[in-house]
């Protein structure tokens, strides 16, 4: 069973049986539930409006047509962005004065997956309570479609990638002229999705020479689309061959961002947020937020700039909620997700690229030297595949009881803070797995800690 319903949206693999996977029937059902939720909760004397965009997945056009026509059947007007990115749709919703938005993407998941990511009128992800209400509506199939004279209408707008780029370039902390003066050369891996269009366009606007790798938006991902070291051998090699200043990698919907240093080594997706936050905090001191599975390095950088750092539960909506509560000026997730409220409350690779380039333009350092200047932490990211027989809550409870004398948090799964290292164990919002993240002063220590807890989890679960 690979249909997952969570704060990250409705996500599943294409094909199979209704209710077990993301079939056409499921796409229609959840689009109907979302549209019904909007109609129930927004009391206005006009047709509602929803912005729709998708990444380049092979299943994208099919799911897109199903969702758009379902909303039309509910009497909701649709602004159709076509091929787009998650942050682009988030930017478009308030600019269109829309009542909500849907991004059709399974983010970093492989090509057999797709999903409906649901937004409110601010272009932000729905809360957990709102998501639960939509699931209730879907379960009850409490849909009321309109008559033929009240059908919604579709307006196509293909300009929003350019509009998004313009919004980024207008940010006060983005200095396009400083970047242009440096004549940077950058390799871009767009994983054959919409990032292969929008990231090169942004770079060209900033006067950067672009070397394209996998930038054809055909949905045939050339490697696992999660931007982790083990998937990125091609771009690491090409950065060195091209004598580029660095490399840029995004996931299929362009909300995650990873850099490759000029020496062909990973800058580290955890350090994307660290570097960008270092720049932002140097210009506008304030507070920061990341999730519990993110590096301690952001805390260190924030404190260096006399700010306060806090950690939220995993999930963009949780990060955003805590950012608003603490008036954080920048935040995000250690998976390469930058959230900069100056433009919008959503992870945005374009914002990260533009701010990083501006920062780099003002440094007399290579990207490798910049990376070496930061606090050195090393992470190990592992997972255990789940079967229906595994009682995840019972497994995590057993771990909690075993380590309850340590500094421990159960806000999101179980996180154990040891003196110089930590481990975070939690059930994924997006895949049928338990994630095991560790961090330590050396890679060996991080790997050893991870192996220890993988063995403990498997032993408790009986696998």
UniProtKB/TrEMBL annotation:
EC numbers for this chain: 5.4.2.-
Family according to the record: Belongs to the phosphohexose mutase family.
PROSITE patterns with a match to the protein in the record: PGM_PMM (PS00710)
InterPro entries: A-D-PHexomutase_a/b/a-I (IPR005844), A-D-PHexomutase_a/b/a-I/II/III (IPR016055), A-D-PHexomutase_a/b/a-II (IPR005845), A-D-PHexomutase_a/b/a-III (IPR005846), A-D-PHexomutase_C (IPR005843), A-D-PHexomutase_C_sf (IPR036900), A-D-PHexomutase_CS (IPR016066), Alpha-D-phosphohexomutase_SF (IPR005841)
Source species: Flavobacterium indicum (strain DSM 17447 / CIP 109464 / GPTSA100-9)
Keywords: Isomerase, Magnesium, Metal-binding, Phosphoprotein
Protein name: Phosphoglucomutase/phosphomannomutase family protein
Alpha-D-phosphohexomutase alpha/beta/alpha domain segment(s): 8-143, 165-264, 271-377
Cofactor(s) needed: Mg(2+)
CC per GO annotation: cytosol
EC category name: isomerase
BP GO terms, sorted: carbohydrate metabolic process; peptidoglycan biosynthetic process; UDP-N-acetylglucosamine biosynthetic process
């Amino acid at each position: 069973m690979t249909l997952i319903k969570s704060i990250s949206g409705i996500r599943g693999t294409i094909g199979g049986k209704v209710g077990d996977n993301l079939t056409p029937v499921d796409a229609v059902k959840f689009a109907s539930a979302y549209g019904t939720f909007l109609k129930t909760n927004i009391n206005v004397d006009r047709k509602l409006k929803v912005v729709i965009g998708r990444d380049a997945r092979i299943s994208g056009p099919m799911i897109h047509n199903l969702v758009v026509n379902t909303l039309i059947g509910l009497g909701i007007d649709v602004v159709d962005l076509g091929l787009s990115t998650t942050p682009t749709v988030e930017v478009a919703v308030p600019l269109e004065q829309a009542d909500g938005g849907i991004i059709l993407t399974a983010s970093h998941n492989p090509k057999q997956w797709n999903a409906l990511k649901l937004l409110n009128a601010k272009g932000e992800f729905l809360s957990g309570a709102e998501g639960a209400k939509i699931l209730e509506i879907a379960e009850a199939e409490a849909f009321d479609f309109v008559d033929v004279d009240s059908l919604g209408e579709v307006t196509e707008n293909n300009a929003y990638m350019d509009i998004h780029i313009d919004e980024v370039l207008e940010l006060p902390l983005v200095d396009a002229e400083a970047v242009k003066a440096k004549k940077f050369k950058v390799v871009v891996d767009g994983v054959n999705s919409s990032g292969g269009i929008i990231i090169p366009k942004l770079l060209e606007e900033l006067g950067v020479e672009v070397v394209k790798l996998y930038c054809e938006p055909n949905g045939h991902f050339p490697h696992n689309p999660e931007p982790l070291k083990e998937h990125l051998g091609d771009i690491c090699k090409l950065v060195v061959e091209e004598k580029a200043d660095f490399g840029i990698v995004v996931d299929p919907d362009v909300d995650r961002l990873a850099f490759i240093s000029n020496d062909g080594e990973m800058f580290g997706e955890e350090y994307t947020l660290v570097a960008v936050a270092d720049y932002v905090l140097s210009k506008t001191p304030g507070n920061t937020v990341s999730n519990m599975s993110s590096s301690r390095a952001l805390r260190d950088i924030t404190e260096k700039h006399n700010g306060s750092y806090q950690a939220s539960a995993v999930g963009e909506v949780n990060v955003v909620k805590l950012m608003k509560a603490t008036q954080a000026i920048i935040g995000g997730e250690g998976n390469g997700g930058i959230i900069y409220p100056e433009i919008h409350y959503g992870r945005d690779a374009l914002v990260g690229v533009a701010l990083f380039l501006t920062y780099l333009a003002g440094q007399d350092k290579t990207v490798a030297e910049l990376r070496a200047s930061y606090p050195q932490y090393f992470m190990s990211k592992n997972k255990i595949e789940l079967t229906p027989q595994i009682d995840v809550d019972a497994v995590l409870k057993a771990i909690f009881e075993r380590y309850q004398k340590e500094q421990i948090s159960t806000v999101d799964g179980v996180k154990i803070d040891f003196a110089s290292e930590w481990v975070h164990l939690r059930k994924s919002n997006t895949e049928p797995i338990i994630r095991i993240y560790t961090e330590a002063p050396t890679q060996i220590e991080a790997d050893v800690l991870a192996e220890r807890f993988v063995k403990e989890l498997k032993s408790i679960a009986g696998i």
